[in-house]
Design brief:
The protein has twelve helices and nine strands. By secondary structure, the chain is α/β, with parallel strands linked by helices. It has an eight-stranded parallel barrel, surrounded by five helices. The longest helix is centred in the C-terminal third of the chain and has 20 residues. Bound molecules: (3S,4R)-3-hydroxy-2-oxopiperidin-4-yl beta-D-xylopyranoside. (3S,4R)-3-hydroxy-2-oxopiperidin-4-yl beta-D-xylopyranoside binds next to loops. Belongs to the glycosyl hydrolase 10 (cellulase F) family.
Amino acid sequence: TRAEAALKDIFADDFRIGAAVNPLTIRTQEELLAYHFNSITAENEMKFASVQPEEGAYTFDEADRIAAFARKHGMAMRGHTLVWHNQSTGWLFEDKQGNPVDRATLLERMKTHIHTVVDRYKGQIYAWDVVNEVIADEGDDLLRRSKWLDIAGPEFIARAFEYAHEADPGAALFYNDYNESHPGKRDKIYTLVKSLLDQGVPIHGIGLQAHWNLYDPSLDNIRAALDKYASLGLQLQLTELDMSMFRFDDKRTDVAEPTAEMLELQAERYEAVFRLLKEYRDAITSVTFWGAADDYTWLNDFPVRGRKNWPFLFDEQHDPKPAFHRIAALK
Ligand code: XIL
């Protein structure tokens, strides 16, 4: 057992505290995860290509192990994700001859997939990222070009929420995206979600991925995004929080270890962010990190191959970093 207070207790009156996990980290970080977190998300194991790599041939082994890990430790679970342009699978958009399928076929496949996956974890998963990253980053287009959009048209989004709601009426259904605090994209996300609500689509929350760094987005832009999304009366969740040491366009590869100065900046940044999040505790229902400790992060190879990163509250030995102590003091 550990000397420091548990994150889930520090924020017990505010929101759930989550971590993304995978088959490696449920083994190598079990003690840390069980002590600090009361929600988990499967990092990749519930994505389309993971659970239905071939039509009708579902592979739930890894997802089931992660769900069992959550039950073992009494943790709640988020589901990620049902409809996305990435980590999808080739067969989905094609017939046996390799020609694109028609709209009705794609929607039927989407429905079968959503019903099967959501039904399997019904009652365990409290929130699903039903649709992930469909907003266009640049330009005037609202929606990102994708096979989903090309074949099925924009209404695949509303249908996805309806199918998920049919499968588990008790789960909170989320639209999830990144760059969610950039003013332009924020307004587009708002426009999409507002139009879904106006059509009576069962959507209950907005997921802010929160792949942030020491410098961006500004606290003002985070606040403006939280205000705008909360004005829709929906729950908000931070779904993939990490605090990269590097600006997104910083391509340096020569930083082998974080300096004391970097760790201090990160501590100040985390403190400021969690102070702000606590102000929105009526709207925010969970804050999930995209990992737990610095020995495993997807940022070790992204966006700069081979570069390490140290985005979390716990170091590579799972000990609390300066950032942890700063946010623990907010209780
Ligand atoms: C990432 C995983 O962390 C990586 O392991 C994988 O190689 C790619 O996907 N937005 C999302 C997440 O919604 O699913 C992504 O996860 C990170 C960006």
